[in-house]
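Quick start: what a row looks like.
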Amino acid sequence: MNKHLDEARRILASNDRGGYTVPTDRLYPFQWNWDSAFVAMGFALYDVDRAYRELERLAEGQWADGMIPHIIFHQPSDTYFPGPSVWRTRHSIPTSGITQPPVFAIALRKVHEAAGSITEARTLPLYEAALKWHRWWYCARDPEGTGLVALLHPWETGSDNSPAWDIALARVPTTTETAVARKDTGHVNAEMRPRDEDYKRFIHLVDTYAACGWDPAQQWEKAPFKVAEVQTTAILLKAGEDLEHLARRLGRKDEAAEIAALNARSRKALLAQWRPALSRFVSRDLISGEDVEAPTQAGFIPLLSLDLEEEIAGALVGEMKAWSKGLKVVFPTTKPGIESFEPKRYWRGPAWAIINWLLIDGLKRNRQPDLAEELRKSTIDAIETEGFAEYFDPMTGEGCGGLGFSWTAAAYLWLMRQ
């Protein structure tokens, strides 16, 4: 067997903490929401039981209102900040108070299909958890019914310190009730992580929402950061398509119709965010009412869940190729050459295997196999050269951030099967 496939499986085994997988030791010592969904898809290729268990452990953290938080603190650890005492949530298992992109239902369909028809009993409770979360998104994060869901914290986007948030985040005060005691820069070079000023704003938001008792309506009213985001909405729409498929397979016809109506709403809303002059989709700052024009990977993620006209798909591909020219690893999370592009700093430029995974699926969906294969080969080459790093410097190919990273291992397993 390919030694890198062996290593990918070894990483997932070494990061197993009892039915759930940490992203990497010490830097991220808990269960992260979208990380676990990607990991479950990796496990589905060779251990379906363990894939189900990953999602079941994640669902243990689901709140009564349907939200699945972005961190589940199954076991204590002092190597990460902010921990449970900062979040001040009241769930039976300690969790954070915000969410993350809803990859869960996408993973559930893949796990269910890998298992075959005998697993309906195990799929059904996870389907019900996914549906409850899906409804939460449209209720709590799109109360006006626009079809675009909003994020109230940059961490919810998954792209924590992206240039996409610079303008909106700058309005958030740096004052906090909580002492900011960062642990991440003790594990990873500070030049690869968000800046201290970013962290103060991140924690100000946590304090603000904790003061609301984590009530969604109060948070919506008080939020100093509120962005209707195309990457998360695109992932939600793909999750909705997979959830609708599962509903039909499980004989839940009324729920399938409900999900289909939500999908149609988000599909229309996403298409309205296309900007021909920019050759990409844009998010919208709900506080200023303005488009978020910062050029980041989010503008291309709607490929994942839209069947685009040939002209739009061609424009997206042309723009992606322009961004990729001369790079060692594609695809960058910020357009190279602009002032905010930082090739080693977290979400301000580096290439991520899981973003490429989403883009590859989207390119294939929209009949763009050549660029999809270019991204697949670039990702595989980066991993085989530099190891299973959290992300990669697109200019030099260097592996950056945490090492022995679970979702990079899962992505490698999946991309090698394509």
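That is the whole record. The chain is about 45% helix and 5% strand. The longest helix spans residues 120-140.
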